[in-house]
């Protein structure tokens, strides 16, 4: 294929190589699933996290978000080997997932721009 498809300069997105990759929706669902699992893990390990705690589930979600964003306020701190290892693993997983989510969002925006460009070229002809 020479890169021209039905008179268009850019191929439609279904012909691009990235079509076999997971969708933004799929990645977001996987992210929420991972967040839920790790929140439950931290909930069961909440006694091994030192700091002022208010509510078990809320503190677990908060600790997950602070860990995944690598903010690390320091108000809740892992106090055992198991919670430290889980926090490290989740931090790496979270950074990777956030990167994939941002990449998928960027793909979506570029695809919209491509469609608008093709539409503008069609209207011009």
Automatic annotation (TrEMBL):
Keywords from the named record: Ion channel, Ion transport, Membrane, Transmembrane, Transmembrane helix, Transport
Pfam families: Ion_trans_2
Entry superkingdom: Eukaryota
Compartments, record wording: Membrane
Transmembrane segments: 26-45, 57-76, 82-102
GO term, biological process aspect, one: monoatomic ion transmembrane transport
Membrane-related topology note: Multi-pass membrane protein
GO CC, one annotated term: vacuolar membrane
InterPro entries xrefs: 2pore_dom_K_chnl (IPR003280), K_chnl_dom (IPR013099)
Residues in Potassium channel domain copies: 31-105
PANTHER family hit by this protein: IP11374P, POTASSIUM CHANNEL, SUBFAMILY K
UniProt family annotation: Belongs to the two pore domain potassium channel (TC 1.A.1.7) family.
Protein name: Two-pore potassium channel 1
Organism: Abeliophyllum distichum
């Amino acid at each position: 294929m020479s890169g021209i498809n039905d008179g268009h300069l850019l191929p439609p997105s279904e012909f691009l190589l990235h079509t076999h990759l997971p969708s933004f929706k799929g990645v977001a669902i996987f992210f929420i699933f991972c967040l839920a699992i790790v929140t439950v893990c931290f909930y069961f390990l909440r006694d091994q996290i030192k700091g002022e705690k208010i509510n078990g589930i809320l503190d677990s979600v908060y600790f997950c978000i602070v860990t995944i964003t690598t903010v690390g306020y320091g108000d809740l701190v892992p106090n055992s080997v198991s919670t430290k290892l889980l926090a490290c693993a989740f931090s790496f997983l979270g950074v990777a997932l956030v990167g994939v989510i941002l990449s998928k969002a960027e793909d979506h925006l570029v695809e919209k721009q491509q469609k608008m460009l093709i539409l503008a070229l069609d209207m011009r002809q």
